[in-house]
Amino acid sequence: MHPVVELRRYALHPGTRETLIDVFDGHLVEPQEAAGMQVLGQFRDLDDPDAFVWLRGFPDVAERGEALRGFYGGPAWDEHSAVANPTMVSFDDVLLLSPVDTLRPSEGVGRYAIVIHPAAAAPEPPDDAIGVWQTDRSPNDFPQLPIREDADVVVWLAPLAGDEAERWPGAEVLRLEPTARSRLS
Hints:
By secondary structure, the protein is an alpha+beta fold. The chain is built from four helices and eight strands, in the order E-H-E-E-H-H-E-E-E-E-H-E. Strands 1-3-2-8-5-7-6-4 form an eight-stranded antiparallel beta barrel. Helix 1 packs antiparallel against helix 3 (75-84). The longest helix has 18 residues, at 17-34.
């Protein structure tokens, strides 16, 4: 279990998602993990061809800052940022989350839904939820990567059933397909 998780959503320039995925999957997963974080899953947004969504976990908030400084100040990011950064319109739609429930194995799921519900009105997550998180109010000790401080949400990851928008009125629903290197596939 990862006590701190980031749900990161990037808006991309049209037609650049596959370029970012190639760089990310090919060159950025292992260096992030060597720096002390774990890439939990990376996805194509099925409803937005110019979006990239991913999750990464950290042992705690203090180690988050240390790991981010290590990775973004390290050789892999230095080498590959010149290709990755120009794909992005924005990278600041980031939720900092703490687990409500453990992340369970999900082999063979195929496609996923991330459901983001306002905390004050969040229903119980579905029985097939793979992970459930809530907003973490810890201060951001790596301001170069902004996090959303306006959010108070409950988030869950579950197999994509196809009717999430109808099942979860009032929620934001991301319908996702894992990349080839995603741990969640």
